[in-house]
Amino acid sequence: MKPEKIKIISFGYFEKKYLREILDEIEHEFSIPVVLREGHLDLSEFFDPARKQYDANKLLKEIETNFAPERKKTLGIFNVDLFIPILTFIYGQAFLNGRCGIASAYRLTNERYGLKPDETVFTDRLRKEIIHELGHTFGLYHCINPTCVMRSSTYVEDIDQKDWRFCAKCRKELGVE
User: Fold this and answer.
1) Beta strands in 23-174 (DSSP E)
2) Contact 130/8 with Cβ under 8 angstroms?
3) Do residues 80 and 91 lie in contact, with contact meaning Cβ atoms separated by under 8 Å?
4) 8 A C-beta contact, residue 96 and residue 139
5) What distance lies between CA 61 and its chain's CA centroid?
6) Residues 100-116 pLDDT 10s
7) Model-level pTM?
8) Active-site annotation, residues
9) How far, in Å, CA of 146 to CA of 111, rounded?
10) Is 157 exposed, middle or buried (0-12, 13-18, 19+ CB in 10 A)?
11) Rounded to 5 degrees, what are φ and ψ at 15?
């Protein structure tokens, strides 16, 4: 059953212009209305002092339990460094064919890599990460097409090399044309 809406929840400070710009493209890719909300969450309980990062598994469960209503796909956006135990860091995570996912802008800015700030690059990376994680909530696996938004991204350069759109195969799996 297709959800009635996609809900994007911003946890922390994000320029609204970035998110509003992305919302239309998310609606286009999924053919479902998108709403933007602000969320508030004490992130201290998700912080792992040994790693100096935030536990993505715990955050994802928190979003599912307290912010993801039935019949809505929900994605929480954060600006913290995320990890899962088996990886040094991640850009986001989602429950495959589930109700929710999370994405982080923390590692998406050029400044993080010693480059000059570029709002266009940042917005493009954030758009791709949001659509990618939402794709997982709709049941999509990682894609082997190098330009598909569902291609796995280990490094920020991987994000830069792919498109923000689904390939024809993934669009077909989603049931949108």
Assistant:
1) 34-39, 47-48, 53-55, 72-78, 82-84, 87-90, 92-94, 100-104
2) yes
3) no
4) yes
5) 15
6) 999 999 999 999 999 99
7) 0.94
8) 133
9) 25
10) exposed
11) -60, 125
